[in-house]
């Protein structure tokens, strides 16, 4: 869907993006992650043709990014805003028409979304009469009203209450199921980890990691397991693993162990089962956040 | 293009639908018509309104005082009392002033005193001075042996017929008419640039503080947004202007007969008929004739060109300012360099240029794009060589393209900058960012 190739962007002496390359597959939910000021917004602005890259190129659906692609992208900026004194219905029509829809088509689409989100009664209201959460809903409609195949959401859940956040999340998933490619940009990695199939981590204007979430997790797997058991158990054979931590709770004993290189979880279980009763057994999988922090530390 | 039209439409409609616009459009002509009616009323009954000042004259010279003639505004009464006594009585006399002429005032032209309770107005003192001067002058002339008849025939009033020798032949012209038209045109252009230029700036700041700008420019180019706003507001200005003219004409033609009573009207007619016999009115008549000889289509079309050209040039700069700041309070430092040439042009055009329309300075001011919209319209009614007009227009068009280019580059970077204090140095750097 989108291929970012060796993109760099400089503002005077400051480097916002340094030779960043990212592939975003059609129909995926892609997480563009990184702390504040990493260069995410700069990259998104380049995709939206708000600014141009100093070097490198962006390929949209097989062709270099051009002006007419603007209508195929829906963009929800981090800094949101609407005309305060304009009626909401009229405003939605205006924004949809700016994306290239005819007035008739825009009216149909806006009505569809207003019904779907049950906000038809807001049509003649002015933005300043709405609460912040309500404005976010309207803004979301403005982002997706022209049925863009690519939707870019910058910090999408900030400002939503949990109920609306859930509602919007479900709408996004539905759009994705209908074929839209979604890009999430956020510094709160835990908020989108469950949604994304692929991610890219950007830190200090460089891409430091990207790929499918499950591949990344496998790659950064610590081969550590958490076990809760009852009974008596001393040591593991060295060819199976080493215990790194032991704790005692009211109910059970617990331990964290590191699996030896050639051992499998099943071998580990086979060793344990004759000796103790197992209540809990799971692999400790690092969160994207933990991976990110470890990566950032490594790069310093 | 389609999208720019959409933006123009929104900018236009959102302003025209505003209550403040409707109020101003209706109230504007009412105010103008009201002022017009008040002016007519004052002209008709102005003399009755003016207070007649009463002056007691103590004349020690015994010749000057008796020659002082009463006029519309001053009523002289000569009394035969010593000045000390007159001063005593003055407080209770109810007269406005006490004039004391010393015995040797005629030869020394000094020793004339005016007593009053309040500060006398300049018009009163100068009127008294004029009266006395005329009397003394006449007496001197009589003493020198000049006959009274000759003295009367010396009073002269002339009127000049100005005729321009141009390539097309002789052309009747009238300086007064040209003066009026030039003045009016430059005032309208100056005010419009300010009012609507600042509206452009406010609009940009509004979009920036609302944070909607990023949503919009992910759909259109910043340049389209800026241009759409500028053109949309220009159309608001023209709409208001045209509405004002229509409403003013309608209201004044409807209201004037109501305001001015029949009596006053006959008085005005009398005034006109009596004046027509004197040489003074033939001058008035000439102004009317000259106005009718002025090529209004030409003046109006050049006016429209400079009105729009000046507005477009300056509003682009105002848009750039708006994009570089976060709130209106921050605009001050950037406003000054933009408004300075505007104010400079306005002051010079209404003082220097209008009196010296063909001087070197006037020429240069009407050629430079930053000042030409205001200055050239002062010169046009006096007649400007075609090549100068063409050069000035071409430069204004070029200047417009240039400032829009600069403004667009500042604008597209500025609108995305938040919470950062911009400086001129920074703005110059923005010019060279890759879009």
State which percent range the strand residues of chain B make up.
5-15%
Return the average pLDDT of chain B rounded to an integer. Answer: 81
Cα separation of the termini of chain A:
33 Å
The most extensive contact between chains is: A-B, 31 and 25 residues
**Roughly how many Å apart are the termini of chain B?**
19 Å
Q: Helicity range of the residues of chain A?
A: 25-40%
Shape of chain B: elongated
Radius of gyration of chain B: 30 Å
By helix and strand content of chain B, what is the structural category?
alpha/beta
User: What is the radius of gyration of chain A computed over CA atoms, rounded to a whole number of angstroms?
Assistant: 24 Å
Category from helices, strands and their pairing of chain A = alpha/beta
The dominant shape of chain A is elongated
User: Low-confidence spans of chain B: pLDDT under 50, at least 5 residues?
Assistant: 275-281
What string gives the helices and strands of chain A in order?
EEEHEEEHHHEHEHEEHEEEHEH
Largest beta sheet of chain A: what is the strand line-up? 6-7-8-3-9-10
Q: Would you count the extended β strands of chain B for me?
A: 6
Helix content of chain B: over 70%
SSE topology:
The complex is a heterodimer of chains A (300) and B (435).
Chain A: E1 2-11, E2 14-24, E3 29-33, H1 40-47, E4 55-60, E5 63-64, E6 73-76, H2 88-98, H3 103-116, H4 132-144, E7 150-154, H5 162-177, E8 181-186, H6 190-193, E9 198-203, E10 206-212, H7 213-219, E11 224-230, E12 241-248, E13 253-259, H8 265-272, E14 277-283, H9 288-299
Parallel strand pairs in A: 3-8, 3-9, 6-7, 7-8
Antiparallel strand pairs in A: 1-2, 1-4, 4-5, 9-10, 11-13, 11-14, 12-13
Helix pairs in contact in A: 2-3
Chain B: H1 2-16, H2 19-49, E1 53-59, H3 64-67, E2 74-79, H4 83-93, E3 97-101, H5 105-108, E4 112-116, H6 122-143, H7 148-154, E5 162-166, E6 169-173, H8 175-210, H9 213-217, H10 222-259, H11 262-277, H12 279-293, H13 296-324, H14 332-353, H15 360-365, H16 372-379, H17 386-414, H18 424-430
Parallel strand pairs in B: 1-2, 1-3
Antiparallel strand pairs in B: 3-4, 5-6
Helix pairs in contact in B: 1-10, 2-10, 8-10, 8-13, 8-14, 8-16, 10-13, 11-12, 13-16, 13-17, 14-16
């Amino acid at each position: 869907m989108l291929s970012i190739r060796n993109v760099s962007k400089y503002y005077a002496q400051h480097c916002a993006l340094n030779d960043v390359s990212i592939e975003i597959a059609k129909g995926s939910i892609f997480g563009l992650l990184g702390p504040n000021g990493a260069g995410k917004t700069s990259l998104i602005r380049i995709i939206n043709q708000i600014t141009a890259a100093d070097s490198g190129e962006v390929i949209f659906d097989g062709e270099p990014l051009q002006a007419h692609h603007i209508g195929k992208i829906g963009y929800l900026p981090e800094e949101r805003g609407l005309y305060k004194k304009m009626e909401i219905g009229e405003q939605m029509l205006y924004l949809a028409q700016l994306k290239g829809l005819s007035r008739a088509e825009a009216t149909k689409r806006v009505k569809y979304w207003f019904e779907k989100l049950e906000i038809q009664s807001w049509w003649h209201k002015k933005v300043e009469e709405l609460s912040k959460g309500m404005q976010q809903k309207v803004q979301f409609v403005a982002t997706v009203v022209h049925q863009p195949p690519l939707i870019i959401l910058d910090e999408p859940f900030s400002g939503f209450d949990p109920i609306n956040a859930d509602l919007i999340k479900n709408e996004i998933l539905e759009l994705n199921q209908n074929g839209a490619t979604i890009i999430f940009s956020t510094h709160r990695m835990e908020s989108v980890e469950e949604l994304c199939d692929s991610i890219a981590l950007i830190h200090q204007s460089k891409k430091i990691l990207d790929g499918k979430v499950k591949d990344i997790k496998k790659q950064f797997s610590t081969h550590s397991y958490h076990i809760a058991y009852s009974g008596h158990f001393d040591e593991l054979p060295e060819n199976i693993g080493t215990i790194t931590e032991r704790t005692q709770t009211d109910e059970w004993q617990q331990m964290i162990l590191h699996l030896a290189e050639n051992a499998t979880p099943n071998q580990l279980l086979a060793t344990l089962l004759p000796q103790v009763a197992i209540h809990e057994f799971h692999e400790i999988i690092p969160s994207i956040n933990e991976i990110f922090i470890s990566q950032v530390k490594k790069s310093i | 293009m389609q999208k720019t039209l959409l933006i123009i439409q929104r900018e236009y409609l959102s302003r025209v639908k505003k209550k403040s616009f409707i109020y101003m459009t209706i109230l504007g002509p009412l105010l103008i018509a009201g002022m017009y009616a008040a002016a007519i009323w004052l002209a008709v009954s102005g003399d009755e309104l003016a207070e007649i000042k009463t002056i007691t004259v103590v004349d020690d010279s015994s010749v000057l005082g008796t020659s002082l003639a009463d006029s519309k505004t001053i009523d002289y009464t000569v009394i035969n009392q010593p000045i000390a006594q007159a001063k005593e009585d003055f407080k209770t006399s109810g007269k406005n002033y006490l004039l004391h002429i010393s015995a040797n005032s005629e030869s020394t032209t000094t020793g004339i005193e005016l007593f009053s309770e309040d500060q006398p107005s300049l018009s009163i003192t100068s009127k008294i001075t004029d009266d006395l001067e005329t009397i003394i002058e006449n007496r001197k002339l009589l003493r020198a042996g000049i006959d009274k008849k000759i003295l009367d025939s010396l009073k002269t009033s002339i009127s000049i017929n100005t005729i321009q020798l141009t390539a097309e032949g002789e052309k009747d012209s009238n300086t007064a008419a040209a003066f009026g038209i030039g003045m009016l045109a430059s005032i309208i252009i100056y005010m419009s640039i300010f009012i609507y230029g600042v509206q452009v700036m406010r609009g940009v700041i509004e979009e920036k503080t609302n944070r909607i700008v990023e949503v919009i420019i992910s759909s259109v180019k910043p340049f389209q947004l800026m241009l759409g706003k500028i053109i949309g507001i220009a159309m608001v200005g023209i709409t208001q202007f045209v509405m004002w003219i229509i409403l003013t004409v309608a209201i004044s033609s409807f209201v004037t007969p109501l305001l001015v009573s029949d009596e006053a009207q006959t008085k005005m007619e009398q005034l006109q008929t009596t004046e027509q016999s004197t040489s003074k009115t033939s001058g008035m008549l000439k102004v009317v004739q000259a106005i009718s000889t002025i090529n209004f289509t030409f003046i109006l079309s050049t006016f429209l060109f400079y009105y729009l050209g000046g507005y477009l040039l300056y509003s682009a700069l105002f848009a750039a300012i708006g994009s570089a700041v976060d709130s209106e309070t921050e605009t001050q430092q950037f406003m000054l360099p933009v408004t300075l040439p505007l104010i400079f042009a306005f002051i010079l055009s209404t003082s220097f240029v209008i009196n010296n329309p063909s001087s070197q300075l006037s020429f240069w001011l009407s050629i430079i794009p930053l000042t030409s919209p205001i200055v050239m319209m002062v010169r046009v009614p006096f007649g400007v060589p075609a090549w100068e007009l063409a050069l000035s227009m071409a430069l204004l068009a070029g200047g417009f393209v240039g400032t829009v280019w600069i403004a667009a580059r500042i604008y597209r970077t500025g609108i995305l900058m938040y919470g950062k204090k911009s400086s001129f140095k920074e703005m110059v750097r923005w010019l060279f960012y890759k879009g």
